[in-house]
Amino acid sequence: MNHFIRTVAAAAMLAAVAGSAHAQAQANVSVKDAWVRATVAQQKATGAFMQLQAAKDSKFVSASSPLTPTVEVHEMAMQGDVMRMRQVQSVDLPAGKTVELKPGGYHIMMMNLKAQVKEGDTVPFTLVFEGKDGKREQVEIQAPVKALNNAAKPAHAGH
Amino acid sequence: MNQRNSNDRVSHPASRRAFVLSATTLALGLLAGCSLGSSVSFNGTDITGADFGRDFRLKDPTGQERTLADFKDKVVLVFFGFTQCPDVCPTALARAAEVKTLLGPDGDRLQVLFVSVDPERDTPEVLNAYTAAFDPTFLALYGDQERLAETAKEFKVIYQKVPTGDSYTIDHTAVTYAFDTKGKLRLKLSHSQSAIEYAADVRKLLHAA
Predict the structure, then answer these.
(1) CA A22, CA B28: separation in Å to the nearest integer?
(2) Which residue of B has its CA nearest to A41?
(3) CA nearest to B151, candidates B50, B77, B47, B52
(4) Most buried residue, A94, B70, B142, B171, by CB count within 10 Å?
(5) Is B138's pLDDT higher than 90?
(6) Residue A153: what are its φ and ψ, rounded to 5°?
(7) pLDDT, tens digit, for every residue of B28-41?
């Protein structure tokens, strides 16, 4: 019985994965290596990171998640020794170029979290992109949660 | 621009000689440093003798008041941050954990302190869980707004609330200060430096007599 449930669940998951892969193959923007930094209990904010690539010149304009209504796109920048973080209206995605949302640059900021985000969980996001023609496209992703202490290793180009 | 630079160089042979001379002196100094232990060069900025960052009086998550004297005989790394910071703070603490690992047995003589610039939201419980997620020996410190302001001033640290949406984030200085085993402020390390660079400096501070 247990085995049966697991099999069905696995099949459903496979179908879902195949479905989203298919959707992304048609989409202008592809999303890779998305992850969310875990929180500790009562910690109300965290960041999500990923790699974006658009086939045509586009902009990443917003993100939403069922976890919290407060999801913003932020940019972190060092000004001398001072770290500054600001909401940005959009992130440019030049055609064919991989744009990384990673520590030390852009991230998706989740605030007012109602519950702890635990390592091993998966966080759904809807990402909104806009082409030069003003046409908007939505991409649904599932981002795994990685440990709070996940070191921000520089991502390898083309990886 | 390039051309002007090269002209400058040509028109100041004396300063070039001086540069070569000082580079040679530096190299000799480094060699001497190896044998005599008199001059040590660091990856971080050497601020030995600084008239700031002398001490603090802050609480740990158990409510106990702490000062630098509590960490005597250890090299102390101090970073100011807040737990709702998604980027620079976890990166700094993950690096500090890596530094401790890189030090091997010497890691026991390293104390990492995380000073909250957000006492409003960083409760002792959150702070304790947060630093423990990186290393159980890391210690979070906090004070009320007044004590925080005094401490930040003493450490030349800037912090500023920035409203965003219906919440706020905090811009803050993201350097790491290193104290030697006698509790004297010695180095300012930058956020762009690696765990290997940090560990090399900590090792030098630990092994300098």
Answers:
(1) 64
(2) B126
(3) B52
(4) B142
(5) yes
(6) -70, 140
(7) 444 444 444 447 89
A149:B164 CB<8 A: no
End-to-end C-alpha distance for chain A, whole angstroms:
40
**Numbered residues of chain A with Cβ closer than 8 Å to any chain B Cβ:** 37-38, 40-47, 70, 72, 74, 76, 78, 81-87, 103-104, 107, 109, 111-112, 147-152
The ipTM, to two decimals, is: 0.79
Task: Say if the Cβ atoms of A103 and B84 lie within 8 Å.
Answer: no
Residues B148-199: pLDDT tens digits?
999 999 999 999 999 998 899 999 999 999 999 999 999 999 999 999 999 9
CB B84 within 8 A of CB A45: yes
Q: Which CATH superfamily is domain A2-146 in?
A: PCu(A)C copper chaperone (2.60.40.1890)
Identify which of A104, A111, A151 has the shortest CB distance to residue B165.
A111
The chain A residue lying nearest B129, using CA atoms, is A40
Interface-testing mutation among A39, A43, A64, with chain B (most B C-beta atoms within 10 A):
A43
Chain B: residue whose CA lies nearest to A37: B86
